[in-house]
Amino acid sequence: MSEDRVLNAESAGNGWNGGNAVKFRNFHFESDYGEQYQKAFMLHRCCMKLSETETKVTIGVVEGSGRDLLRFLEAYHMPKQTAFVNIGKSEFASFAGTLGCEASVNGGGKTGDSSFALEHIEEDAPVINIINALCIDAIKMGASDIHIEALEKGVQIRYRIDGVLRPVKLVAASLFRQLSNRIKVMSGLNSLEQRLPQDGRMTVSIDGAALDLRVSIVPTSSGESIVLRLFRGAALELDELGFVPEQLYALRNAARLPYGLALVSGPTGSGKTTTLHALLRTLPAEERKIITIEDPVELRQDGINQIQINEAISLGFDGMLRRVLRQDPDVIMVGEIRDEATAELALRAALTGHLILSTLHTNDSVSVIPRLIDMGLEPYLIASSLRCSAAQRLVRKLCPCCSREVKPDKRAAPLLRRQGINAHRCREKNGCDLCAGTGYLGRTVVGEVFKSDRELEALIERRADTETLRSCIAGRGFRSMETDGLEKYAAGITDFEELEREILCA
Ligand SMILES: [Zn+2]
Predict the structure, then answer these.
(1) If you measure from the C-alpha of residue 398 to the centroid of ligand 1, how many angstroms do you get, rounded to a whole number?
(2) Least confident of 19-28, 116-125, 361-370, 461-470
(3) DSSP per residue, 172-201
(4) CB-based contacts of 90: which residues, under 8 Å, 6+ apart?
(5) Fewest Cβ atoms closer than 10 Å to its Cβ: which of 70, 123, 261, 495?
(6) How many CB atoms sit inside 10 A of residue 125's CB?
(7) CA 220 from chain center: how many Å?
C-alpha cells in the first residue's frame, strides 16, 4: 500500500471508537479525529498525529522508530514544522486497542502483514445531528441540563426540566462512543481519555445563534455519564423570581448599601446565583465598579466584570478575591463562601467599604451565623458585617392550563392551621400538552429574608444559639420559608408534594 495514499485520513476511516482507555505519559492529546492519519498507516508505522496547528504538527512515534519514517513525515508535512514525541510500545498497543485492532509493535518498523479488521465506521454527521437535535429539543422544552448516560440497555438521554429529570430518548448503545468522542472534540477535551473525569465548554450554533454549553464527563462502570448544561440568555429579573414584596424590598435595600455583607443560602440548584445576578442588575453599573468571582461564569452580563476562578492555577475564591480588592471595586459578588480564608476576606472587605454579595450552603437564613462561627470567624466580625441574609428553594409551579381546584391535603391542614393560613385556593396537578403531561410549568422561589439590626448584632456577638437568633427575628414579622411555601400552596401556585420534597423534609 502506498503511504501517500493512506496517510491522508478521511473521517470515515479512522474512528477512535474503541473500548479501552489510553493514557500516554509523554503528551497531551489534542487532535480532532477527523484530521488523524488513516488507521492502516498508523498501525503499520506505529505512529499517530497528536496535534496540528497552522505551523506545527506533533507526532507520536514508538520508541526506536527508523529515521526513514521521521524523514518521510517531516517531508510530508512541509512547510509545517514537525515535532516527534516517543510513545511506549505498550501505550501504542493499547491505543490500537481503542481502534478495535491489535497492533503488533516491533520497534516501530514495518509489521508486514499485520491483521486488523477495517470495520465500517459511520460518518460523523449523524452524531453531530443527534447532538444538535438534542440541544434544540432541550431548549424548546425549557431544560437546564442534558444527561447522556451509557447504560447496559443503551444510551439514556434525559433532560432536567424545572429541576426534575425526565427521560426523553434511548438510543443504541453502539452510538455512545461516537457521541462521547464528538462531544469531547467539540469541547476541547481529550477524546482518548476515558478513565478520568473531564470538564469543558462547547458552543453549538442553533438557528444562527451561538449557544454555550458546559460539559462534564465522568467515567462510570458502564461507560461514561455526560452532562451538558445549557446557559440560557434570558436572565430573570429580581421581581420575577417569586419573592414576596417585603422580601424584594429587603433584598433591594441590601444591594443599595455602600458596604456590608448580604448572603443567600440554600443547597446546590436552589437558584442562589440567579438571585444574586438579578440583584446585581438592579444596581447602576455605570456608577459602580461591580466585579463577580464565579465558578463558572454561567451568564454573562453587560457592564460588570465577571471573573472565573481557576483552581488549577491556585486561583480559588480567596486568591481571586484578594486580587480583586486591589481593583477598587464597589460591589463584589463572590460565587460561594466555602472556606475560612474566603469567609474572613469577604467579611473584612465588607467592613472596609465594599458591598459583598455571596452564597453559603446552609439550610436557612439564620444558620449562616452559626455556620460562619463554625468556620472559625469571630462573632464580632460577623455581627458588624452581615446586613442581610436570605435563603431559598425552588419549587415547581402548577401548570395554569390544567391544574384543578381541590381541598387542602390532609397532611397540610394542621400546618396551615398552625400558621393561620386560609387555604381556599389549593390546586392539584393534572397534565396537558402545554406541560407535557407533567402538571407543572416553571418554578418559583420559596424564600425567607431578614435584615440585621442592633439587637441581632448583640446576640451574634454573645454567640447566642440558633433558636434565640430565630426568635429574635421572628418577633419582627419574619416570614419563614415554611410559611412562604404554605402561602404559595394555599394560593394554588404549587402543590403539597413540591413543598414536602423541597422544604418540609429538609
Ligand atoms: Zn398543563
Answers:
(1) 8
(2) 116-125
(3) -GGGHHHHHHHHHHHTT--TT--SS-EEEE
(4) none
(5) 123
(6) 9
(7) 18
Return the ∠ at Cα 251 (arms to 250 and 257), rounded to 5°: 90
- The CA 439 to ligand 1 mean position distance, Å, reads 5
Q: With H, G, I as helix, E, B as strand and everything else as coil, classify residue 283.
A: coil
**Residue 92's pLDDT is what?**
76
HSE-CB for 418 with a 13 A CA cutoff: 8
Lateral strand order in the sheet of 143-151: 164-171, 154-161, 143-151, 223-230, 209-220, 198-206
Q: Which residues of 99-120 are buried (b: 16+ CB within 10 A; e: fewer)?
A: bbbebebeebbebeebebeeee
- Side chain identity at 503, as an amino acid letter? I
Q: Which residues surround ligand 1, an ion (CB under 5 A)?
A: 399, 401-402, 432, 434-435
Handedness of CA 74, 80, 81, 86 (dihedral sign): negative
> Using CB atoms within 10 A of its CB, is residue 84 exposed (0-12), middle (13-18) or buried (19+)?
middle
Complete DSSP assignment for 54-120: SSEEEEEEETT--HHHHHHHHHHHTTSEEEEEEE-HHHHHHHHHHTT-----STTS--SS-------
Cα 157 to Cα 110, 227, 407, 436, 440: the distances in Å are 44, 10, 37, 17, 21
Q: How far is the CA of 141 from the centre of ligand 1 (A)?
A: 13
Q: Give the DSSP H/E element, type plus range, for residue 343.
A: helix 340-351
The one-letter amino acid code at 477 reads: G
pLDDT value for 95: 72
Judged by DSSP in three states, 261 sits in: strand
How many angstroms does the Cα of residue 441 sit away from the middle of ligand 1? 7
CA distance 387 to 370: 15
Given the C-alpha cell 516501530, which residue does it identify? Answer: 108
Residue 506: the pLDDT is 55
Cα(493) to ligand 1 centroid in Å equals: 13
Residue 432 has pLDDT above 70, yes or no: yes
Q: How far is the CA of 432 from the centre of ligand 1 (A)?
A: 4
Place of cell 459602580: 288
Compute, in angstroms, the gap from residue 434 CA to the centroid of ligand 1.
5
Handedness of CA 294, 296, 299, 303 (dihedral sign): positive
Q: How far does Cα 101 stand from its chain's mean position?
A: 36
What pTM was estimated for this model as a whole? 0.67
Which pairs from 282-286 meet CB under 8 Å and 24+ separation?
A: 282/238, 282/252, 282/255, 283/255, 283/256, 283/331
Residue 162 CA to ligand 1 center (angstroms) comes to: 14
pLDDT level of residue 24 (50, 70, 90 thresholds): low
Q: Could you identify the residue written with the cell 463558572?
A: 296
- pLDDT confidence bin for 25, thresholds 50/70/90: low
Which of 73-87, 168-182, 395-409 is predicted least confidently? 73-87
The C-alpha atoms of residue 352 and residue 348 are separated, in whole angstroms, by: 6
User: Could you tell me the distance, in angstroms and rounded to a whole number, from the CA of residue 233 to the centre of ligand 1?
Assistant: 25
